[in-house]
Amino acid sequence: WVRGVHQTPPALIRSLGDKVQLVCTHGQTDYRVMLWYQQPPGQTEIKLIGYLNYYEVKMEKPYEQHFSIHGDLSKNDAKNVSLIFSLTGDEDSAVYYCAASLRGLCSFTEAYFGAGTKLTVLVKVLKPSVSECRNRKDNKQYNKTLVCVASDFYPDHVSVFWQIDGGNVTRGVATDSSARRDGKYYRITSRLMVPLTQWYTPEKNFSCTVSFFNGNKTTYSSNWVRGIEERYLRITHNAKLSYAVLIVKSSFFGVFVVVLLLCKLKVGPPSYCVQAT
Q1: What pLDDT digit, counting tens, does each position of 31-62 carry?
Q2: Cα 137 from chain centroid?
Q3: DSSP 46-61
């Protein structure tokens, strides 16, 4: 991929609204076309953002509003071209590649790529409103969250999916928007939220599968966990029931003692005293 084409920075973490500048350089003085591409997370294809031919810029329509390319390739010196854009959403999280070519797109000449820049956009998470909290409290449901973590892989071409009893599920699934860099390698986390009625079903099978593309082929790795018996729920329910009965008995005994004392202290005919038995 790389033949004297250099990109900076290699990785970048920014927030929504930030302006980003990626720089691409090379020393091939006769390569007067520089192209920029975007590779979204989990995809193998790359999308053309635009290119600079000598000093003329051509942008693809989806990128015209927020992206711009700056530079001058008409001179006989080292080439330096920048891609500048503002972050408008988490869809800007991607790997960005620049490429140097001798001629334009329609000339069928080779293009030499840089190593890429991994951009991660941090999305602000808002607190739930008061009405949301009230609705969640009123419609309270008990769930179990299963967590699947894949780590120590490179590059970051992965996707994760969940299955229950062999059938794909998407409801209750929350997966990282992209793999996170962890030293030399990457890791990704996915979560599945299921009702307790499913989790406390011993024959239920919950599996997590990670597909990984290493540049030549796709491999799959899976792990699974079974539901457990509802014994814990029964024990908890019985404990609560026993506690409630104990409170009722204690309250009844307390009323009985109070009535008995009143009967002993009251002055008058015994017909006014009612004793519980």
Answers
A1: 889 999 999 988 888 999 999 998 899 999 99
A2: 25
A3: -EEEEEEETTEEEE-G
Give the per-residue pLDDT at 36: 95
Identity of the amino acid at 193: M
Structure token digits, residue 236: 């908890």
At the fourth CATH level, which superfamily is domain 124-226? Immunoglobulins (2.60.40.10)
Confirm if 117 and 22 have CB atoms less than 8 A apart: yes
Residues of the chain below pLDDT 70: 1-3, 103-109, 123-141, 230-277
Contact in structure between 207 and 200 (CB atoms under 8 Å): no
Question: Which one-letter DSSP state was computed for residue 254?
Answer: H
CB of 212 closer than 8 Å to CB of 188: no
CB-based contact 97:114 (threshold 8 Å): yes
For 13, 69, 94, the CA distances from 16, given in Å and listed in that order, are: 10, 20, 14
Class of CATH domain 5-121: mainly beta
Residue 207 pairs with which residues in a beta bridge?
Answer: 163, 224
- 111: CB partners within 8 A, 6+ apart: 35, 99, 100, 101
pLDDT at 270: 33
Q: CA-CA distance, 276 to 115, in Å (whole number)?
A: 88
* Domain segments of the chain as ranges: 5-121, 124-226
Token pair, residue 5, equals 């084409």
Domains 5-121 and 124-226 equal at CATH topology level = yes
End-to-end CA distance of the chain: 93
Type and span of the H or E element at 189: strand 185-195
